[in-house]
Structure formats: structure tokens, C-alpha cells
Design goal:
409 residues; mainly alpha; 3-stranded antiparallel beta sheet; two-stranded antiparallel ribbon; 13 helices; 5 strands; 3% strand
């Protein structure tokens, strides 16, 4: 008599396998953590015992010398030193052997991960994504990223080796920016102050808070040492204080806590935070890049961060596309078959989705404006054309073949 065995769905089998894999890795981690904890306790005990033994030997030598006027025999000294050295070597050997066991336990975690989880990330990239025409653009993005970070020499070397047409005038702003940032990290505001004075009109047009932020740091620094100097320096807020009245009121309230060093424990202690300098550096980079016609953040950093956010969704998509009935879902190489929300931070421009084809526009399929004012994609126009004219899918008006105009957002 043959028993009937119920076969579990493939998805459930996969979930059980992944759960068992997680349990296996978790067990190895717990074992390694327990061994590390025990080893740490044993190390502390062995080293403390060794220190106690050496201290005892040292004290015995001192006591023997004080108790006897005669010199201690060399043979006795050598025997004591030999015993001490052997004890030290024995302890070191024990610690070294225990340390090797720890390496073995940690390596088992990696082996458990490799055994139970297979990383197949080929879907995260395309082999032909960077053709010859795009290689130059990618190199420029990398160079710009290096220059933003202050690696001027590395950036210049890459520009030279890649054969990019960058003259010195394009590099000078990055060099000056790097000098300003380096000074700010050393808590020196003078280069930043001078740069703000030279570009005051452009910064005011952008409603930049940089000038106020620099004066705020200088004011707090003076207030901690001399109230009178801080009060005199407060006149510098006249040009930029109108846009920061609430912040300026808080700064003036700091006078109430400046005596006897009470400012660090006051409600305005945030003005002393090291993050103030980090914020200033970020604003300097943002304003300087905007004045150079660049984005406030590095294009390379934006791309990498967006890719990391999308990686999980892409891997889930890959696991679903292995089913035969879903092979034709991803037919368009220029877009994904699912929507991946990266958050408002990564929304840089408007996107048009064709109401007829239910697909997003692209360079090869741009949005087109019909004579009636409605917009559909170029692919939809071609499908709706009958002869030399077409009827708008949203109103009765007809449009000739040569009338649709490409839209730019």
C-alpha cells in the first residue's frame, strides 16, 4: 500500500529552506559569540595571573636584597627569571591557541552563509549599460566626485589619464572649495568668511543661510570668552538677521546663560554641538556647487544610494521572473516592470505616463501633444493613426499626421 505524500507548494518550500538557513547561521553566530565571551574572560584571568606572578617575583627580589647585605647568588636569580620566562611563554601559547579556535568559529559563520544563501545579483546590472559613448560621462562623474571630496591630486591624475578636456579654470573652484572645507574642519572660519563676502549677491539671491551660520559660530565662540566682544560682534547679524529672526532671538537669549559657564547645560546647548561645523560644511558644498552649475549632491553618490535602495526590490523581482508565465512581463529594456519608490529625495523631474499605452515615456517614446491639447505617447500616436489622421482618444477632434508636437518637461 502506497502512502499519499502531500507536496508543499514551491514558494512554501523555498521559505522553509530560507528559514532553516537563517537558523543555521544564527546557531553559528551564537556559538561564536559564546566562545568569544568565554575566551575574553579566560584572557583576562590568565593575564591577571601572569601580572600577579611577575609582581610577586619582583617583590621577592626586593625583600631578599633588603634582608641580606650579601649579594643574591646569580644562580638563584637566573632560576627565578627562567621560571618567569617559562610562565610567560606558557600563557602566550595558551592565548594564541585559543585565538586560533576563535578564527575557526568565525569562519564557520561565513561557510554557513555561503552554504544556505546564494547571491545572484546579475539582475542588478546590465552588461551593455556602459557603452563607449557613456564611458566618458561616467569618468567625468567619478572625477567630479573626487574633486568634491577634496582629492584634488587624484582627480587631476584621473583627468589626465582618461584624456578629459578639463582646463585649470574648471578645477580652480574645487581647489578653493577644498581649502575652505579643510579650514572649517580645523575650526577656522576666515577662508569661508572671505568667500561669502566675494559671493554675497549670488548667495543672497539663493536665500542661502551660510552667512548667518558662520556669524552664529563666531558669536557663540566669543560669547564663551567675553560677553562684551560677543555683543559688539552681534552687529554683523544686521545684514542677514531678518531671515533668521527666531534663531537670532535664541542667540540673544544665550547671554542669560553665558556667565559661570552655564551655556553647555542650557536649553541652547545645541549651538555648541560639533554637528554645527558639519552642517556648515554641507551648506558650503551645496552653495558652491550650485554656483558652479552642479547639483548639490554628488551624482555618483546619488546613483549608488539609489541603487542600494532599489537592490532589495530588484532581487525580489528576479525571484518572480523565473516563473515561465512571467517571462514576457519585462519586454521593455528601458524601464522596469514594477514601480520602485525611492522616496521624494530622488525625484528630480516630472515623468509622463501614457494614458493609452499605460507605460512611461522614454527618449525613444516621448510624450506628444495633439492639436486638441491632449497628450499621449509617440507609440500611441503611431497605433491610432489611420492613414494621415487620427482621432483623439479623449475628444472628438481629429489630428493630422504632421500635427503632434513633442513635449518637454
Amino acid at each position: 500500500m502506497q502512502a499519499n505524500v502531500e507536496r508543499k507548494p514551491e514558494g512554501e518550500q523555498k521559505d522553509n529552506k530560507e528559514w532553516k538557513g537563517l537558523e543555521s547561521v544564527s546557531n553559528e553566530v551564537e556559538k561564536a559569540a559564546l566562545k568569544i565571551n568565554n575566551a575574553h574572560q579566560q584572557y583576562s584571568y590568565d593575564i591577571d595571573s601572569l601580572l600577579e606572578y611577575v609582581t610577586e617575583m619582583h617583590q621577592q627580589f626586593i625583600n631578599s636584597k633588603e634582608a641580606s647585605e650579601d649579594l643574591i647568588p646569580n644562580s638563584s636569580i637566573m632560576q627565578s627569571l627562567t621560571r618567569s620566562i617559562e610562565r610567560i611563554k606558557e600563557t602566550l601559547s595558551k592565548v594564541s591557541s585559543s585565538h586560533k579556535d576563535l578564527h575557526s568559529s568565525i569562519s564557520k559563520i561565513g561557510k554557513a552563509i555561503d552554504k544556505n544563501f546564494v547571491t545572484d545579483d546579475h539582475i542588478l546590472s546590465k552588461e551593455d549599460i556602459l557603452d563607449t559613448n557613456k564611458q566618458g560621462a561616467l569618468t567625468e562623474i567619478i572625477c567630479e566626485h573626487l574633486l568634491r571630496l577634496g582629492y584634488i591630486d587624484v582627480g587631476k591624475t584621473l583627468i589626465k589619464e582618461a584624456g578629459l578636456d578639463w582646463d585649470e579654470s574648471r578645477l580652480e573652484p574645487f581647489t578653493e572649495l577644498n581649502q575652505i572645507l579643510r579650514a572649517c574642519r580645523d575650526h577656522n572660519l576666515d577662508p569661508a568668511m572671505q568667500w561669502v563676502k566675494r559671493h554675497k549677491l549670488a548667495l543672497d539671491a539663493r536665500n542661502s543661510p551660510l552667512e548667518f551660520m558662520l556669524h552664529r559660530i563666531k558669536f557663540i565662540s566669543l560669547l564663551q570668552n567675553d560677553e562684551r566682544q560677543a555683543l559688539e560682534y552681534a552687529r554683523h547679524f544686521g545684514g542677514c538677521g531678518q531671515r533668521h529672526q527666531k534663531e537670532l532671538q535664541k542667540l540673544m537669549a544665550c547671554f542669560l546663560f553665558s556667565k559661570n559657564g552655564r551655556l553647555p547645560t542650557s536649553p541652547y546647548a545645541t549651538f555648541l554641538s560639533p554637528n554645527i561645523w558639519i552642517e556648515v560644511c554641507d551648506v558650503i558644498v551645496r552653495d558652491a556647487c550650485a554656483m558652479m552649475g552642479l547639483s548639490s549632491e554628488s551624482s555618483l553618490a546619488i546613483s549608488l544610494n539609489a541603487g542600494c535602495l532599489a537592490a532589495t526590490s530588484l532581487l525580489m523581482l528576479k525571484s518572480q521572473l523565473k516563473y515561465p508565465h512571467l517571462h514576457d512581463v519585462w519586454s521593455n529594456a528601458d524601464e522596469l516592470p514594477i514601480e520602485i519608490d525611492l522616496g521624494s529625495k530622488y525625484h528630480f523631474h516630472s515623468a509622463f505616463a501614457c494614458p493609452v499605452m499605460r507605460s512611461r515615456s522614454s527618449d525613444s517614446n516621448p510624450p506628444m501633444r495633439l492639436s486638441c491639447g491632449h497628450a499621449i505617447s509617440k507609440e500611441a500616436v503611431n497605433k491610432l493613426l489611420t492613414g494621415n489622421k487620427m482621432k483623439c482618444p479623449y475628444c472628438p477632434q481629429e489630428t493630422r499626421r504632421d500635427e503632434p508636437k513633442e513635449l518637454y518637461f
